[in-house]
Design a protein that fits this description.
This protein is of the alpha+beta class. The protein is built from five helices and 14 strands. α2 runs antiparallel to α3 and α3 runs antiparallel to α4.
Length: 286
């Protein structure tokens, strides 16, 4: 890819300010429960949801244990422990409904797309000890700039890097609260990146520059990355980038609407998608 920056790798890595990127996995899971003699309809629906969340964690643990090479038993055990203590957030209810089971009576079933978030404290501690370059660890993608403060008319350079191949969306939020999508953009639609490589933005086929102009103040850059294609946003082409029409509070959720694919003949189960979100703040001034 034309954005690869080889000569700068050693230099820019010394300037990476965010040593930790929020990690999670996204998967589909189905849960069900029956009323019996002791549950109301509402309690049955809640029990089915709890069942789906439990299965989402189980699917994730199975995936990580089968896709993580145990190079360091203690560190990999930390990953398992972090996901064993995970919380689950429902991103989307794919389908749900009541049905009658011949032996159990009235039952409720639902299928959800869920994000499994590991114990953050354990993951952060592990990040201090583990090698960022290790491609056998869960997906971890970072973003940084060449400096943290910029004056008027200066040009901002952004760098991104992941420990394994990933798909990404890079979002810039300016002082006024406006959000734009830098990548992919109208002239560079490729959002697939190799692991272990530093990429510079803008570069290659990009037709925009990030030149500092009013209003000045605190701004931010966020990279959303996944092991599968990300969910879609409402975008409008503008000056080589995309204006984001999606409500800013919904960007993270809609991006997590990743494309989950079934892998092999596994009884209808779909492979969880590794997800990473990382942000950096910068200051612009006159």
């Amino acid at each position: 890819m034309k954005r690869t920056i080889i000569a700068l790798i050693i230099f820019v890595l010394t300037a990476i300010p965010n040593l930790y990127a929020a990690q999670s996995t996204i998967t589909e899971a189905e849960g069900q429960a029956c009323m019996g003699d002791d549950k109301s309809k509402k309690e049955t629906e809640q029990a089915a949801l709890s069942d789906a969340k439990r299965k989402a964690v189980d699917y994730t643990l199975t995936y990580l244990e089968s896709n993580t090479e145990v190079k360091n038993f203690v560190l990999e055990s930390d990953v398992v422990k972090a996901y064993s203590n995970a919380s689950v957030r429902v991103i989307e209810e794919i389908e749900k409904g009541w049905f009658r089971d011949p032996s159990s009576g009235e039952c409720f079933r639902l299928k959800v797309k869920a994000e499994v978030l590991p114990d953050e404290k354990i993951i952060k501690n592990r990040a201090k000890e583990a090698s960022f370059d290790d491609p056998t660890s869960p997906l971890n993608v970072r973003v940084w700039t060449d400096k943290q403060e910029y004056k008027s008319s200066e040009k901002i350079k952004i760098y991104i890097r992941g420990n394994k191949p990933f798909y990404a969306r890079v979002v810039y939020k300016d002082m006024s609260g406006k959000t734009v999508q830098l990548l992919p953009n109208p002239y560079s639609s490729d959002n697939y990146f190799r692991g272990g490589t530093v990429y510079e933005i803008p570069s290659g086929e990009d037709r925009f520059e990030l030149e500092v102009s009013p209003p000045f103040g605190s701004e931010s850059i966020t990279i959303y990355a996944g092991s599968s294609q990300l969910g879609d946003l409402d975008l409008e082409s503008a000056s080589g980038i995309y204006d984001i029409k999606t409500n800013p509070t919904d960007i993270g959720v809609k991006t997590r609407g990743v494309k989950i694919k079934q892998k092999g003949d596994d009884g209808g189960k779909k492979t969880p998608v590794e997800f990473s979100e990382s942000s950096i703040s910068l200051v612009t001034k006159k």
